[in-house]
Amino acid sequence: MDPEEHTDSPSDQPNGPERRITFQLYEYWFGLVEEGGLPPLKSLTPADIAPYRNNMVLIDLRDPKSEPTLQVVGQLLLDDVGEGIPLSTISDIPRRTLLSRLTDHYMEVLGNKSPISFDAEFINLDDQKIYYRGIMLPFSDDGIKVNFILGAIRWISEDDMKKAAAEAALFEQDNTTQSTTETDTPAEETASLAPAAPTEEGSPTAPDNISAPDIPVDVSPSDQIPASLPHLREELEKCRSLVQGQSPADLRSRKALYETLGAVLDFHHLCQNNKDSYRQLLAEEDLKAQKRAPFTPALKLCFGRDYDKTRLTEYAATLSYAQKHNLTGADLPEFLETFPGGIKGCVQAERQGRHDGNNTPTALSDEESKKIIQNMPPLASFDVLIDDDTGNEEGNDLCLVLTRREGTRMDVVKILPQDKKILGPIIKKLIRDL
């Protein structure tokens, strides 16, 4: 397998520091979004997706009563599946293929109604270890319901990674030998003349571009040295990079959002400790400090002044609640993970605290928990026959369902009897994990 054929090569990369397929396609998809709704499939143009057509799959979900169908499958994905295998629906896809690794994520897109990106490794049908990175993008006819999902994936085998690394090392050795024979300049004089040229992130000479871990961003404030305006700008850019996401999935995932809010909390503290520089920064962005909503300007700086106002209000309430409990940005992600209801739970507790005059964390009631779950979008809908074990339709608004999973297919085995002792803790755990 030629790594140039399956990794991000310079010829198909846009200008800028990020050249990975997930960023390229996410930025393209995000540019199609209008007024917060999902973009329509007709907004795609063949020319724009041409660089990825051999690595793509288009899933059709327009018929809710039928299994999702495969409208388009890229040639490289077909080659990986093998000849003579008909591909019409999701269940036709053989396991241990790149196409299966890509389409396995379509239920996540349906549930989140947002892009999902991923990178991992697996052993394919030829017993090769494959490293891959992919993305799934939702499209809608009405801006709300997901009717199509466009997926794309790139990959490299472990053998090709080793070969590319060896070739890179040999190339570096040749260059070093050539430079020492062509110059008489002492090594200690040339060592500091110029830094080593960075490796192109998508090129075959940088095989670790597929599974390299993300480097955490440190945005903790300094208590010793007053921050200058350039320093505040630098910290702001770090927060904005977290908002944009290390990957499209990060942008939409709960964990990444919590980490981003933690960074914004630290940035806010830094700004409050350096108010003169903060005022200059706000003036540059045509924003003003708000006494009644102190977190809002910092959130607008990081997320953008046109970001959804409802979300900004929720984030501001969450940060206010965190500050009242003496939390730092490093503490916030774990706190939100364990706090009942996460962000929405904090918002409710903050509002309740303002009303009651205190901010003691309180657990959500059963009715409040049920209300949150009832507002969640369904992953799938179907009619069932009601029997004596499950009770009648009235009053049984929530129940436990036992399913059997086979790949992407879910078979409902039994609807379990309603038992508040069992159902209650499960609901509360689900709320904590939101």
UniProtKB/TrEMBL annotation:
Organism expressing this protein natively:
Paremcibacter congregatus
Tell me the superkingdom of the source: Bacteria
Ranges of biased composition (kind: Low complexity): 172-191
Region Disordered: what ranges?
Answer: 172-224
- Please identify the protein, giving its name as recorded: PAS domain-containing protein
